[in-house]
Amino acid sequence: MKANEIITRIREGDERVISQTYRRYREEFIRWMKKKYASSDEEGRDYYQEAFCRFLIQVQSGKLTHITSTIKTYLFGIGRNVFGEQQRKNTRFDREIDEEKIADHYELKLQKEEKEIEYQLIESNLEKLDKKTQDLILMFYYQNRSMEYIAEKLNYKNAASAKNQKYKCIIKLRKTLESYKIRRAGR
Question: What is the DSSP letter of 140?
């Protein structure tokens, strides 16, 4: 059967011709995709499915009524276009991912720098505190000591007194950090 006769039969809805045409070029198309574009069998099947669907739509919608080439050549041409579209889409997607990675990296770097500044600010403010309060903060946050232990070692009346002193110190440090952030935001 000639190409244009097949097109006519497909447009008329001849399921047998559609099925035969689909099966006739499928394996050859998959081998061609593997050889020409180094695609896998699965990718080749997907590309063929897409190419054949586009071919059917063109025929059934009346956009394709007559061809001068073979159906095989026409299908392979559609397949080449489908492959090219997918590669462009992948390239665009990869570029978007790269741009997101750069933006994320930059954001993380800024956050890290901000945290480093905050740590330095806390450290410099801790140095301004009296020795007993510095020791309290160090024992609690860096050495993970209990309030009872801290109260005993630093001669506080009890654990509640040590906890109260720690609370006052933390409030001062937070205010210092907040004022620093406000100053930075105003720049």
Answer: I
Q: Residue 38 carries which DSSP code?
A: -
| Region of poorest pLDDT, from 8-22, 35-49, 82-96, 131-145 | 82-96
Two structure tokens written together for 162: 């040590």
Strands (E), 30-181: none
Cα 143 to Cα 20, 59, 102, 138, 150, distances in angstroms: 78, 78, 38, 6, 10
Contact 122, 173 (CB under 8 A): yes
Q: How far apart are CA 19 and CA 16, in angstroms?
A: 5
- The pLDDT tens digits of the residues spanning 89-148 come to 777 666 666 667 766 767 777 778 878 877 787 777 777 778 888 888 888 888 888 999
Report percent pLDDT > 90 for the chain.
34
Sign of CA pseudo-dihedral 77, 81, 84, 86 = negative
Which residue, 142, 34, 18, is CA-closest to 71? 18
97 vs 93: CA distance, rounded Å: 6
Residue 121 pLDDT: 77
For residue 39, give both structure tokens: 């695609």
